[in-house]
């Protein structure tokens, strides 16, 4: 603190200025209104409140200069907190106070008599500016502490709302509306959910993703968990978002199908996790869940789906890795090719006879027919489950 009390001559000037407080208040108020649109337009305080604030702060300044000792700056701290809570910008706030301090200095100049030397005015000037520095320092500190507190409160509330959105358990229609408003997301828009594997505890796999999406006019909300960075993104077309995600993936990234309405976010997160798990561990790629009735059914119960895949495909999964992989790739290609040996061979870049041999080996090992509709349905479902929940399936086989 720089101000510890004024010299007797300065204190005398302050006492002489006190009766002029009403006209000083009016002059300060009018100057602020003339120079500062934020106060002229009553964006944060009314003209009546501003005039009262001018009077109180000018009275504090004159009383502090007139009385001995260090002044009580609690008023400065209270004002800083009040204005921060109102959202008033700090530069405008400080400018208004400087106008008030300047008004006091000008009155002191007027009160300087010919008998008083220049030294008295210099002392008064020094006292005023030292007091102003202390006052503004206290006000600024209080303002910034309050803004930090507001920011923490908002961030904590935002995190709680995002958590409610992703868990879905406590999200009613009214809370969904509040979540949408707080997160600046449309309630009934179209969205995708993204689940990105983190490179380490507390480290983002998609740094600055919210800013990058905003630049492309996509609103989003994100949460960081120990193993995932998850977000919901408002969009019309998923392709620009997928292209952005593919620019520099730092791990596995799963994307849900496009869905409508924030109330479906929790289910979409599950599907994004499924898409992520379909990528091999250690890879750096982006996969989007392809929505279909079968895919949705398989994804709805990961444990049961993994058990199904284990039961149906166990004989192949228990073969040596090289043979097991070759047979599974052939079976997938056969399904993708609509059961055509020719198309399967083209997809796998091998001779049709090789495909026939592998398909015969598959039917022998599994004791199933590729011409029986029931067997085909089970095999197709098991392959889908293996693609989604490969790790769980292999654990079931090894267990």
UniProtKB/TrEMBL annotation:
Residues 22-158 form the RsbT co-antagonist protein RsbRD N-terminal domain. Residues 169-277 form the CdaR GGDEF-like domain. Residues 327-385 form the PucR C-terminal helix-turn-helix domain. Belongs to the CdaR family. PANTHER family: CARBOHYDRATE DIACID REGULATOR, DNA-BINDING TRANSCRIPTIONAL ACTIVATOR ADER. This is PucR family transcriptional regulator. InterPro entries: CdaR-like_regulators, CdaR_GGDEF, PucR_C-HTH_dom, PucR_C-HTH_sf, RsbRD_N_dom.
């Amino acid at each position: 603190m720089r101000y510890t009390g004024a010299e007797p001559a300065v204190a005398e000037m302050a006492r002489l200025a006190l009766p002029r407080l009403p006209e000083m208040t009016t002059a300060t108020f009018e100057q602020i209104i003339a120079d500062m649109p934020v106060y002229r337009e009553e964006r944060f305080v009314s003209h009546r409140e501003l005039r009262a604030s001018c009077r109180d702060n000018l009275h504090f300044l004159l009383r502090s200069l007139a009385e001995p000792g260090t002044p009580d700056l609690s008023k400065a701290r209270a004002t800083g907190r009040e204005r921060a809570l109102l959202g008033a910008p700090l530069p405008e706030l400080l400018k208004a106070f400087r106008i008030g301090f300047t008004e006091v200095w000008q009155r002191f100049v007027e009160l300087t008599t010919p008998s008083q030397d220049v030294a008295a005015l210099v002392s008064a000037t020094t006292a005023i500016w030292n007091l102003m520095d202390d006052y503004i320092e206290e006000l600024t500190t209080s303002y910034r502490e309050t803004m930090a507190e507001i920011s923490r409160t908002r961030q904590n509330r935002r995190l709680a709302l995002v958590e409610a959105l992703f868990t879905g358990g406590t999200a009613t229609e009214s809370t969904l509306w509040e979540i949408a408003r707080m997160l600046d997301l449309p309630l009934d828009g179209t969205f995708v959910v993204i689940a990105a594997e983190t490179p380490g505890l507390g480290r983002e796999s998609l740094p600055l993703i919210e800013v990058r999406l905003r630049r492309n006019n996509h609103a989003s909300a994100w949460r960081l968990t120990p193993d995932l960075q998850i977000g919901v993104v408002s969009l019309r077309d998923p392709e620009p978002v997928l292209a952005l995600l593919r620019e520099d993936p730092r791990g596995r990234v799963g994307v849900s199908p496009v869905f409508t309405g924030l109330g479906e976010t929790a289910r979409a997160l599950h599907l994004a996790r499924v898409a992520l798990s379909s990528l091999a561990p250690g890879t750096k790629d982006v996969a989007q869940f392809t929505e279909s009735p079968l895919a949705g059914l398989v994804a709805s119960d990961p444990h049961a789906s993994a058990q199904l895949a284990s039961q149906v495909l166990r004989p192949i999964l228990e073969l040596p890795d090289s043979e097991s992989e070759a047979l599974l790739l052939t079976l997938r290609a056969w399904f993708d090719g609509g059961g055509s040996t020719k198309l399967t061979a083209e997809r796998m870049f091998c001779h049709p006879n090789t495909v026939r041999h592998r398909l015969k080996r598959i039917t022998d090992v599994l004791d199933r027919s590729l011409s029986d509709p029931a067997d085909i349905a089970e095999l197709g479902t098991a392959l889908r489950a293996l693609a989604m929940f490969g790790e769980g399936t292999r654990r079931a086989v090894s267990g």
